[in-house]
Amino acid sequence: MPMFDYNVHKTAWKEIAESAERNYEPGKFTTFIGYEFTTNSGDLEGGNLHRNVLFESSNYPERPWTRIDSMNPEDLWSWMDKLRDLGLDSIAIPHNSNGSNGRMFETKYWNGSLVDDQYADFRMRNEPIVESTQVKGTSDTHPILSPDDEWADFEIFPYRIGRGKTYSDPMAVMLDRLIKEALGWSGKIGVTHINLE
Fold it and tell me: How much of the chain is helix, strand and coil, in % rounded to 5?
């Protein structure tokens, strides 16, 4: 048997999608067809690059894009763009960025070249929102960044996901610092894609 069987993959995905549809109760319980795209930065310094991918409707692809297809999140976004052209809209929501050691929101493409306005459009089209807090810690702020904020130590999980007791750099992962940095970058690349609502 092959190491990865796409037929098993497709069958499991179909069961997940059908379960979401079966349990949807308009006005009472909302379900989404979706999955987690789990990858990492591909080096010893980085961390997790988790994203939840949610589809807009009951139309969904034959199978999800996974790390077997590519570890590069930009390839996920390209796949999402292709599906969008076919009428299958979706979004990816980055989460657990607190455990990414700064790799979730780098200012460069996967290949190392600096981001530009095309990157900003590409990413915002596919990742218009980001998760700030969940059970594995907050990605909102940190006492180091916000010493006067009495809630800055709420739900701090200091480690990289899947790296044992290896610390994630709070200066590189917290959303309050990233928003300030992104506002500066928006002037450099000529676009503004930050909505603070």
Answer: 30, 15, 50
